[in-house]
């Protein structure tokens, strides 16, 4: 859809888009329809003076507060970086593309391959540049081969730290169609994503004695705690629990805990408590319903995420998101490569499909997000077409076909099945 | 761990991070060895899977056979001295100690009696869902040991 000649788009501050001068009422209405996907329902149907609305919108952004959705490129379509990764990543992302094509989602993928077999960082740097350009990415996990020398850093980690994707968010919810020991789980896990035990700072001053540095900074701890409380408030959650081991790591985790407490004092409507990580895992496997929102440093986040994913049915079900101030990257929550099941058409596409829906929400393509999400959940809970990891016998493609059939049956515009 | 994929038995079509697997199918694990922090976390996680710290024994082994066996639950000051506590954790830790000392017969006998008492569900302390006293639970175990002889 092209801009009418009467309108002259001019770039405005930062990453926002067009300040448009209306020439006529007719043109104004069509412009409103074009840019309403950007701002959701914020502008409504009435035309306002764009200048003031745009600048005030910046402070009202949802989710990450400061995170501004990337601009749709020319013609109302978004460009998103796609990193296939290793193992089951490529096939699952192909299915995402299939579903997007079928549902006529206005997203174009810029595919960037990252080869985990080479030691140079050229590939991952290309990927990072692409994400800086597009603002949003959807990725499979890039394998970190243990046979590589220690100087070769984890590519996934490099991506997270270079783009400063400081918040890893995972929403674990029990699905009615999946058999699990515990039910009624609804936990949001916010994991600090850039420092902690993943700082990749290790040295062996004396042969056979290795020292690893766990980095906890006041800045990043305050930042992640603030993110957690803002998210809790935005989602109407009542309680935030900080997970730590401050009794042993008095300075490191002690600092983290102190920062959480400081931020908590600014949110009197939300209950704040803390729990030591070992007790947390014990509570998770015996009474997970007690948890609401949890915030924690990097390694404990890894542990707790995996435990919670196991509780709701496994790594094939839960999507994950990595948010920074300027960028967002979506993937499966437990970041597995799934090497042993790759290429066999048995992987569960749910996690990746739901991750792509989170991405669509981030791009404010809410209708498409809901449509695909509902179709996935209908297939999971009503049709009960399950892959092997959750006890079924369906193949990946059967599940994806079912998802597309559900989308089509809801009367949306789709291409041929 | 992020990025790692375990090699799984051929009949299990999943590959997952350790903690998720532990939660979904802990029976696949036998002996696990690990550094300190992971052990701290995983031991509590597994204790949660089997019924909690009230029934979990542990031991700390050093060089030259020096060892300390202990229960890892708290001191529970609210029920101290009221004949209400569950002695299972400490008792099974004592069984570990007997085995460490080579007294396997005694150890096995006590463990069997303890497990049978719990399995029977007739005499259980409050934390296990019953309303017997600690001394009654202990007496029941002693009775079974006598019967085993």
How would you summarize this macromolecular structure in one to three sentences?
Chain A has 417 residues and is α/β, with parallel strands linked by helices. Chain A contains twelve helices and 14 strands. In chain A, strand 3, helix 3 and strand 4 (107-111) form a beta-alpha-beta unit.
Range of strand content of chain A:
15-25%
Q: What form of chain A results from the Cα inertia axes?
A: globular
| Main beta sheet of chain B | 2 strands, antiparallel
Structural class by sheet pairing and helices of chain A: alpha/beta
Radius of gyration of chain A: 22 Å
User: What is the residue-averaged pLDDT of chain A?
Assistant: 85
Give the helices and strands of chain B as they follow along the chain. HHEEHHH
Strand content of chain B: 5-15%
Would you report the number of β strands of chain A?
A: 14
Helix content of chain B: 40-55%
Mean pLDDT of chain B: 87
Largest interface: A-B, 42 and 32 residues
N→C terminal distance of chain B = 49 Å
Structural class by sheet pairing and helices of chain B: mainly alpha
The number of helical elements of chain A comes to 12
EC number (chain B): 1.1.1.41
Protein name (chain B): Isocitrate dehydrogenase [NAD] subunit alpha, mitochondrial
Keywords (chain B): Oxidoreductase, Tricarboxylic acid cycle
GO molecular function (chain B): isocitrate dehydrogenase (NAD+) activity; magnesium ion binding; NAD binding
Describe the structure.
The complex is a heterodimer of chains A (417) and B (149). Chain A is α/β, with parallel strands linked by helices. Chain A is built from twelve helices and 14 strands. A ten-stranded mixed β-sheet of chain A has the order 4-3-5-14-13-6-7-12-10-11, with helices on both faces. In chain A, strands 1-2 form a two-stranded antiparallel sheet. In chain A, helix 7 (252-264) links the parallel strand 10 (239-244) and strand 11. Chain A is globular. In chain A, 46% of the residues are buried. Chain B has 149 residues and is mainly alpha-helical. Chain B has five helices and two strands, in the order ααββααα. Chain B has a two-stranded antiparallel sheet with strand order 1-2. The longest helix of chain B has 17 residues, at 104-120. Residues 1-17 of chain B have low confidence and may be disordered. Classes of the chains: A alpha/beta (417), B mainly alpha (149). Chain A binds chain B through residues 87, 141-144, 146, 154, 156-157, 245, 277-279, 281-286, 299, 302-303, 306-307, 309-311, 314-316, 334-341, 344, 346, 388-389, and chain B through 1-8, 13-24, 37, 40-45, 47-49, 52-53. Chain B: InterPro entries: IsoCit/isopropylmalate_DH_CS, IsoPropMal-DH-like_dom. Chain B: Its EC number is 1.1.1.41. Chain B: Pfam families: Iso_dh (PF00180).
């Amino acid at each position: 859809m092209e801009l009418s000649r009467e309108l002259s788009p001019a770039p405005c501050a930062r990453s926002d888009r067009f300040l448009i001068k209306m020439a006529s009422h007719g043109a104004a209405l069509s412009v409103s329809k074009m840019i309403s996907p950007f701002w959701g329902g914020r502008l409504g149907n009435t035309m306002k003076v764009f200048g003031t609305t745009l600048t005030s919108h910046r402070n009202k952004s949802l989710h990450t507060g400061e995170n501004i959705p990337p601009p749709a490129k020319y013609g109302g379509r978004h460009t998103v970086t796609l990193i296939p990764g290793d193992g089951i990543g490529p096939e699952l992302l192909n299915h995402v593309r299939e579903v997007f094509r079928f549902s006529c989602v206005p997203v174009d993928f810029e595919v960037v391959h990252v080869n985990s077999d080479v030691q140079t960082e050229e590939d991952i740097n290309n990927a990072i540049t692409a994400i800086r350009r597009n603002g949003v990415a959807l990725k499979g996990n890039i394998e970190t081969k243990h046979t590589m020398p220690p100087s070769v850093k984890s590519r996934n980690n490099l991506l997270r730290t270079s783009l400063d994707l400081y918040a890893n968010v995972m929403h674990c919810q029990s699905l009615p169609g999946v058999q699990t020991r515990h039910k009624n789980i609804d936990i949001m896990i916010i994991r600090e994503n850039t420092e902690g035990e993943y700082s990749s700072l290790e040295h062996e001053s004396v042969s056979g004695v290795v020292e690893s540095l766990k980095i906890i900074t006041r800045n990043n701890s305050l930042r992640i705690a603030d993110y957690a409380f803002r998210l809790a408030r935005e989602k109407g959650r009542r309680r935030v629990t900080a997970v730590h081991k401050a009794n042993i790591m008095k300075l490191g985790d002690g600092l983290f805990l102190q920062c959480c407490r400081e931020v908590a004092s600014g949110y009197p409507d939300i209950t704040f408590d803390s729990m030591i990580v070992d007790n947390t895992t014990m509570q998770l496997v015996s009474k997970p319903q007690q948890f609401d929102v949890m915030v924690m440093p990097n390694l404990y986040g890894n542990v707790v995420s995996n435990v919670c994913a196991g509780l709701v049915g496994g790594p094939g079900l839960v999507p994950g998101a990595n948010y920074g101030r300027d960028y967002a990257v979506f993937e499966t929550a437990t970041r597995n490569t799934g090497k042993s099941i790759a290429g066999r058409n048995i992987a569960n596409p749910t996690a990746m499909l739901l991750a792509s829906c989170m991405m669509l929400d981030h791009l404010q393509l809410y209708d498409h997000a809901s449509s695909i999400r509902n179709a996935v959940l209908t297939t999971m809970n009503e049709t009960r077409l399950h892959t092997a990891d959750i006890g079924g016998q369906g193949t990946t493609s059967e599940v994806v076909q079912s998802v597309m059939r559900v989308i089509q049956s809801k009367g949306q515009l789709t291409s041929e099945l | 761990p992020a990025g790692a994929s375990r090699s799984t038995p051929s009949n299990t079509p999943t590959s997952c991070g350790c903690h998720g697997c532990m939660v979904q199918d802990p029976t696949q694990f036998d002996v696990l060895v690990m550094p300190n922090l992971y052990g701290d976390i995983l031991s509590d996680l597994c204790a949660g899977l089997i019924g909690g710290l009230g029934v979990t024994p542990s031991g700390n082994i050093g060089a030259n056979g020096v060892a300390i066996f202990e229960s890892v639950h708290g001191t529970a000051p609210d029920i101290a001295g009221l004949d209400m506590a569950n002695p299972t954790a400490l008792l099974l830790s004592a069984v570990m100690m007997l085995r460490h000392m080579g007294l396997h017969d005694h150890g096995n006998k006590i463990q069997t009696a303890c497990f049978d008492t719990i399995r029977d569900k007739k005499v259980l302390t409050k934390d296990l869902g019953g309303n017997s006293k600690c001394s009654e639970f202990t007496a029941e175990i002693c009775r079974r040991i006598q019967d085993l002889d």
